[in-house]
Structure formats: structure tokens, C-alpha cells
Amino acid sequence: MRSKFLIVLLFVSILSACTSINDRPVESNTASQGIDSRNKQISQLTRWTINGKIAFINNQERQSATLHWQKDEAEKTESLNLSTLFGIKVLELNQQRDNFTLEVDGEYYQTQDLDYLIYSLTGLNLPTRAMSHWLKGIAFLPTDKLTYNEKTQLPESLLSYYNDKKWLIKYSQYHHIGRYQLAKQLTISQGNLRIKIAIHSWNI
């Protein structure tokens, strides 16, 4: 049972499509794009798929999984799968409008409040609603604070007080994905919890 709950944590803390042919590292602000301009552009990116790996780390242990996450914010549809390195499914999440279905170890849970479902399973308040924003390097709450790299003008970190807890997100290895500039590595920290996400491919 405890293992099942840790797998759930892997999802919330928060993910094989082909990588874009325009996927190349960002070395400087070659797009000549200001901070406000990028934030507006990224806010309009509402349909995307990512593939990669995710690791959940605390003082006692580390667990990792492969990640596939597809989201259409405009249509309110979502599909997220976590599996072991051997391809065994450990978690599947599906959203249709305001309804969520979560499968963990063959057990199904349905809710319209994903935050509450995760809390009921784990006892923890985690940033389920903010993740799709933080993943793109934009604020979810008006009070979220972003710091930017002086050379690239891209987000280096984001500080948020979500559910009365302090969350710190650090970004690295930005790539040009089509006309967007998106991070391929990020670390999310809250207390003793760290979640590391390595994105192998963005498909937009």
C-alpha cells in the first residue's frame, strides 16, 4: 500500500512521440524575445505531449518511472501514464472535462477534485493544478515569483506558495521546440521532497 502511494506522489508533484526537427539547445536569446513576450506566447501553448523520466526523492528513498503526458487545456482532456523501466504500467490518469479517473495498481478512483483525491490517498497537499503551468516556466498564481537568466531571458527558478506550502522549481537545459523555448530538465522541491523531471521530447 505504501508503495502504491509513493507512485501516486510521482505523478502529482507534479511524464513515443518524435522530437521536433527544430529541437536544439538554447545558447543565447537568439529569438530576441523579451520576458513579457515569451510569457504571453507560452500561455497560448495549450496542447502538448511530453515523454521522459521522473524521480521522486526524499530522505528515505528514491523511486523513478518513465513518463508520458498528453494534455489539451482548451478541451480539458488529459492522459498521463507512468511505467517502470520494463514497461509495466503503475499509474494512469485520464481527464475528460472536469472529471478525473485515476488507476493505480488495478484500482480505480474517480473525482472532480484531483487535489482532494491525492490528499485522501497520501495525506499531502500537492500542486496538481499548477504543474502544467510550472512545466512551461510560467506562473500559476499571481503571487508566483520567477527569476530569469540574464543572458537568455528564460526562467531559472519559480517560487510559489501553493496550498500554504513553499515550492521551488528550478529549470535547466532549454531547447528550441518549434517557435517555443522550453526546459528539458526541472527540479521541484518542497521540504524534504524533490521531484526531478527529465523531458526527452516535447511534441507541440
Task: List key phrases describing it.
twelve-stranded antiparallel sheet; outer membrane lipoprotein receptor (LolB), chain A; globular; alpha+beta; 204 residues
Question: Helix/strand-derived class?
Answer: alpha+beta
DSSP strand tally? 12
Based on the structure, what is the oligomeric state of the protein chains?
Answer: single chain
User: Proportion of β residues?
Assistant: over 45%
What fraction, in percent, of the residue positions are helical? 10-25%
Largest sheet: 12 strands, antiparallel
* Weakly predicted, low-confidence segments: 12-21
CATH architecture tag: Clam
What gyration radius follows from the Cα positions, in whole Å?
16 Å
- Number of domain units: 1
Q: Give the SSE string.
A: HEHEEEEEEHHEEEEE
- CATH homologous superfamily caption: Lipoprotein localisation LolA/LolB/LppX
- Mean pLDDT, all residues: 84
The CATH class is identified as Mainly Beta
Q: Number of helical segments?
A: 4
CATH topology label? outer membrane lipoprotein receptor (LolB), chain A
Shape: globular
| Ends distance | 36 Å
Question: How would you sum up this structure, described in words?
Answer:
By secondary structure, the protein is an alpha+beta fold. The chain has one domain (2-203): Lipoprotein localisation LolA/LolB/LppX (outer membrane lipoprotein receptor (LolB), chain A). It is built from 4 helices and 12 strands; from the N terminus they run αβαββββββααβββββ. The chain has helices at residues 2-12, 35-43, 114-122, 131-135, and strands spanning 24-25, 47-57, 62-72, 77-83, 89-96, 99-104, 107-111, 145-148, 155-162, 165-177, 180-190, 193-203. Strands 1, 2, 3, 4, 5, 6, 7, 8, 9, 10, 11 and 12 form a 12-stranded antiparallel sheet that branches. A hairpin with a 6-residue loop joins strand 8 (145-148) and strand 9. The longest helix has 11 residues, at 2-12. The N and C termini lie far apart (36 Å). Mean pLDDT is 84; it is low at 12-21.
